[in-house]
């Protein structure tokens, strides 16, 4: 059975449909989307358009900004009730939230040529420059072709020993009965894995701490800048000053990392790139500046995402001892007392279902696109230049596709139960040309950490602590102290 851990590399828009280890769709391939609700095509010629219904709760001048700032997850999930395309306002700026899986797929895959990346990525370009995660169109396609081989199946498989080693060194500091800040531990794991595999020896130790401090300021700042009006970011507030400082810190750290690369150290990216030379006219390859922007993109996109997902994985196991017992039993059976190897991972089927369910429950909550021209989405026509919003989190909590959506139920990913899930209803990694380049890397990284930790440790919720979800670029636990117990 094809799994995301075994999928061939290539431009996702060209690659065969990716499937979860259970055979359920992790959406990324092209095809003609059909509006499931109405049976009508999702895109196409503009005719008899209707106005998108407006979401309630807009303030004069501020629009939906206050509710997006205060209750972001509740707000994005509430939009589904108002229509398949719902008009909201970011301050005075109109934006269209697309809530139906078929229409989201149209925006990301079938009709993707009609859309660029939009406001979120404009804001991120302040620190991502022209990195992979911030570009669109022809420039993005050429960059993706250059970088994709670094994330090939073989390269990801070759990273398993590093992932295992990093996970082992994280748990080696744990003391039975002591409290571990699991959210921090998982971010440390994720940062160490990304740096040691992609850019070994470059961002570690001394810089690692500064990096970990800058990341949340930047990811939160990027979301806040998307939601708030332009003038707000120019005010000399403490938050804006922190953002500027974090931006400078990140630029310095990445420059250091790139310099280390140029000194000839190995790493997934260095195999591809020769930034010290720079490509000659018409040759493949990246300039040093482009290389630096891509490193920033990958660091921004690849550290907190996996770190937060792993933290939620252990939070959910801590709350569900019956699921934890099943993961432990599976790890014991599959690994028979040795550390995990790449070939063991597909056999950790229940563990993988817990990971998929974690990715469903705690998916990225708001991502943008921008219409290049007037585009029809279902019955609605959005004007050229319109900001389009999609929310994997909201799609994943729509009871039409995911019954009892707030229940943590890994077995919903059993083949019999998820066979009829519509395409576009499960998008933890997005879809189409901008689908996460690190999806297989992240799934591998999460499975290795889960296996290494669950072999010897059980993490219990710290008594009396209420864990809240905080929406930055992805959803984080506000705090996650857990008591480590030896199994
Ligand atoms: C659980 C972990 C992760 C999640 C949930 C996640 C989610 C996503 C999503 C939803 C997108 C698409 C955004 C869009 O539609 O515009 C994306 C793109 C991206 N991700 Fe991830 N990601 C994860 C891990 C990683 C890792 C480990 C890396 C790299 C080491 C990475 C690198 C990237 C990059 C570079 C892009 C931009 C791709 C492009 O535009 O071509 N991500 N990710």
What topology does this entry show?
Layout: H1 65-70, H2 72-78, E1 85-90, E2 93-98, H3 101-110, E3 115-116, H4 119-128, H5 137-147, H6 153-158, H7 160-171, E4 179-181, H8 182-198, H9 205-227, H10 238-262, H11 268-272, H12 288-302, H13 304-319, H14 321-335, H15 349-361, E5 367-371, E6 375-377, E7 380-382, E8 387-390, H16 392-396, H17 415-418, H18 439-456, E9 457-461, E10 469-471, E11 475-477, E12 481-486
Parallel strand pairs: 2-8
Antiparallel strand pairs: 1-2, 3-5, 4-12, 5-8, 6-7, 9-12, 10-11
Helix pairs in contact: 4-9, 7-8, 7-18, 8-13, 9-10, 10-12, 13-15, 13-18, 14-15
The protein binds protoporphyrin IX containing FE.
The site of protoporphyrin IX containing FE (HEM) has 23 residues, from helix 12, helix 13 and helix 18.
Binding site for heme: 436
Biased composition (Polar residues): 31-40
Family: Belongs to the cytochrome P450 family.
Task: Walk me through this protein's architecture.
The chain is α+β, with helices and mostly antiparallel strands. The protein has a single domain, classed as Cytochrome P450 (Cytochrome p450). 45% of the residues lie in helices and 10% in strands. The chain is built from 18 helices and twelve strands. Strands 1-2-8-5-3 form a five-stranded mixed beta sheet. It has a three-stranded antiparallel beta sheet with strand order 4-12-9. Strands 6-7 form a two-stranded antiparallel ribbon. The model is unreliable at 1-20, 29-41 and 271-284 (pLDDT under 50). The structure holds protoporphyrin IX containing FE. Protoporphyrin IX containing FE (HEM) is lined by residues 132-133, 144, 194, 297-298, 301-302, 305-306, 309, 364, 367, 392, 428-430, 434, 436-438, 441-442. The site of protoporphyrin IX containing FE (HEM) has 23 residues, from helix 12, helix 13 and helix 18. One of its GO terms (molecular function) is monooxygenase activity. InterPro entries: Cyt_P450, Cyt_P450_CS, Cyt_P450_E_grp-I, Cyt_P450_sf, Cytochrome_P450_Monoox. Keywords: Heme, Iron, Metal-binding, Monooxygenase, Oxidoreductase. Its cofactor is heme. Residues 31-40 have a biased composition (Polar residues).
């Amino acid at each position: 059975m094809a799994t995301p851990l075994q999928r061939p590399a290539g431009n996702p828009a060209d690659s065969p449909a990716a499937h979860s280890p259970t055979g359920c769709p992790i959406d990324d391939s092209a095809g003609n989307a059909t509006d499931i609700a109405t049976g009508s095509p999702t895109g196409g010629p503009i005719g008899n358009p209707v106005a998108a219904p407006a979401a309630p709760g807009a303030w004069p001048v501020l629009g939906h900004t206050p509710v997006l700032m205060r209750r972001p997850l509740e707000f994005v999930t509430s939009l589904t009730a108002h229509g398949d395309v719902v008009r909201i306002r970011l301050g005075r700026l109109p934006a269209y939230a697309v809530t139906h899986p078929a229409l989201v797929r149209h925006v990301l895959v079938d009709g993707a040529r009609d859309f660029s990346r939009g406001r979120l990525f404009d804001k991120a370009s302040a620190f991502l420059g022209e990195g992979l995660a911030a570009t669109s169109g022809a420039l993005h396609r050429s960059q993706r072709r250059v970088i994709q081989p670094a994330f090939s199946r073989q390269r990801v498989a070759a990273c398993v020993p590093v992932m295992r080693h990093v996970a082992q060194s994280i748990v080696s500091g744990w003391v039975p009965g002591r409290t571990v800040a699991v959210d921090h531990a998982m971010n440390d794991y994720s940062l160490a894995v990304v740096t040691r595999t992609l850019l070994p020896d470059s961002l570690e130790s001394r810089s690692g701490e500064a990096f970990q401090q800058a990341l949340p300021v930047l990811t939160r700042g990027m979301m806040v800048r998307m939601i708030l009006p332009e003038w707000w970011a120019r005010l000399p507030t403490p938050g804006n000053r922190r953002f500027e400082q974090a931006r400078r810190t990140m630029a310095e750290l990445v420059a250091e990392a790139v310099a280390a690369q140029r000194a000839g150290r190995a790493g997934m990216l260095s195999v591809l790139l020769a930034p010290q030379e720079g490509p000659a006219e018409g040759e493949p390859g990246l300039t040093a500046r482009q290389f630096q922007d891509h490193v920033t993109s990958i660091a921004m996109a690849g550290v907190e995402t996996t770190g937060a997902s792993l933290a939620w994985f252990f939070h959910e196991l801590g709350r569900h001892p019956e699921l934890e017992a099943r993961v432990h039993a599976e790890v014991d059976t599959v690994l028979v007392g040795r550390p995990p190897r790449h070939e063991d991972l597909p056999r950790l089927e229940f563990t993988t279902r817990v990971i998929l369910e974690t990715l469903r429950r705690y998916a990225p909550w708001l991502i943008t696109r921008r219409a290049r021209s007037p585009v029809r989405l279902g019955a609605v026509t959005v004007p050229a230049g319109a900001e389009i919003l999609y929310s994997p989190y909201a799609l994943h909590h729509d009871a039409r596709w995911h019954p009892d959506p707030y229940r943590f139920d890994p077995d919903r990913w059993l083949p019999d139960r998820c066979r009829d899930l519509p395409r576009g209803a499960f998008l933890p990694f997005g879809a189409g040309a901008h689908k996460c380049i690190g999806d297989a890397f992240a799934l591998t990284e999460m499975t290795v950490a889960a296996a290494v930790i669950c072999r010897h440790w059980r993490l219990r919720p710290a008594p009396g602590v209420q864990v809240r979800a905080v929406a930055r670029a992805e959803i984080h636990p506000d705090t996650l102290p857990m008591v480590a117990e030896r199994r």
